[in-house]
Amino acid sequence: MPKVKVPRKSTIVDMTAMCDVAFLLLTFFILTAKFKPQAVVAVDVPSARSTKAVDNAIIITVNTEGKAFISLKEKQVRYAMLDKLTEMSAGHYPGVVDLTPAQKEFFSLTETWGTPIEDLKRVTTMTGTQLKEYQEKQMPGIPFDSINNQLGDWVSAARYATGGDIQIGIKGDKNSNVEYVKNIIKRLTDRDIHRFILITSLATGGDAPAETAATPDADKPK
Amino acid sequence: MAQMETSGGGGKHDGGVRSKKMSTRVDLTPMVDLAFLLISFFMLTTTLNKPKAMQLNMPKKTDEIDKMDVGECQVLNVLIDTLDAVWYYEGLQVAGLQKTSFSGDDGIRKEVMKKLKKVPAECPPGKKWVDANKDGVKDPAEISMGPRDAIILIKMLHGARYKNMIDILDEMDFTGCKIYAIQDPDPIEVEAISNGGTVKEFAKEVVHQ
């Protein structure tokens, strides 16, 4: 019988094609990647079944202490909102009238704000590191009691600045007291704002069983 | 592996320098390694869970025109306490307060579904709210409405978790319940829940909505 000759093949594979694919994917991911903006206010969002996307919204973040912060994605909208607020309620808030263009620019460069209006003048002259420290440690939140409803003014200003084409989002922590969110809704209905969106994250894998209560004030029904 | 030819340029030979033909092939394996490393980095850092939202419409405060005649039999009260438990009762009968949970199909969802089916079948058709002072004449044909729908009143007790509010709104969405409202709980209800569901004798009669 004749011997079957197995031809010896080189083990080296041509990597060019693989390299092409790898770089193609790499380019795709680099171009589509949007880095998580550093969250100034850490909030653990509850999950729900809803799949509606948030596109154009002013987000009111309520942290576990009940402080309110506003954030807007677009820089121009933030600028316009500040302008509108100045125009609408200059009499109310003397602090906002004589902001210099540089201070306004500073305001519009920061996404999340939790500063009372009377304090804006001071905060908008801070340096980068000062601002960071302020945001991390001392940001007092925007006042929203019935007498001094600055949150309502901000939201109204944002609505006017965009011609009403903006959603009002409320982003609460899942373990926080529901009262905080209800208060904010109450203050905004005072300003004739009735439609809200509640920011949630998509529930993963069917129904998550209700977790046990973890809030300190949840010991006993009041 | 691609290697550089490092032979010294021919010093011995006098006749023309003969350069060695080098292969143009370069080994791409490290490059592919690098590319995949970067791919995994970008894949992992990309935010995949973009925020979603849930619509919530609150009623206007001074809306007298759209007042509806709500029948007791339409209403299902859902209360959520601070320990993540769900309580419910129908109509005004606080005495019938019962405890359930959010657990999937057996929890509050079952009760809401039951109510949604029961109301159009059993409740008598309603009447539109007519302001008798404005137009004294009431035409029965005009004011009677079609079959009723269930109304769910959601009451979050003071100190309940925000997560539970989202959960119950999610249930409303899931069961297809169209009419629901978030309200403040009544003191009688709060007391009944803190007593574990039993209502004191005097309170059995009336709950002010």
Short description:
The complex is a heterodimer of chains A (222) and B (209). By secondary structure, chain A is of the alpha/beta class.
| % residues in beta strands of chain B | 5-15%
Question: Termini distance of chain B?
Answer: 83 Å
* Portion of residues within helices of chain B: 25-40%
Strand content of chain A: 5-15%
Q: Give the strand order, joined by hyphens, for the main sheet of chain A.
A: 1-7-6-3-4-5
Q: Indicate the radius of gyration of chain B in whole angstroms.
A: 35 Å
**What is the overall pLDDT average of chain A?**
81
* Largest sheet properties of chain B: 5 strands, mixed
Q: Summarize the biggest pleated sheet of chain A.
A: 6 strands, mixed
Rg of chain A, nearest Å: 25 Å
Number of helices of chain B: 5
Distance between the termini of chain A: 95 Å
In which range does the helix fraction of chain A lie?
25-40%
**Which descriptor suits the 3D outline of chain B?**
elongated
Order of helices and strands of chain A: HEEEEHHHEHHHEHE
Count every beta strand of chain B, where a strand is a DSSP E run of 2 or more residues. Answer: 6
Secondary structure tally: strands of chain A: 7
Question: Can you describe this structure?
Answer:
The complex is a heterodimer of chains A (222) and B (209). By secondary structure, chain A is α/β, with parallel strands linked by helices. Chain A is built from eight helices and seven strands. In chain A, strands 1-7-6-3-4-5 form a six-stranded mixed beta sheet. The N and C termini of chain A lie far apart (95 Å). The C terminus of chain A is likely disordered. In chain B, a hairpin with a 5-residue loop joins β2 and β3. Chain B is an alpha/beta fold and 209 residues long. The termini of chain B are far apart. In chain B, 28% of the residues lie in helices and 14% in strands. Classes of the chains: A alpha/beta (222), B alpha/beta (209). At the A-B interface, α1, β1, β2, β6 and α8 of A face α1, β1, α4 and α5 of B.
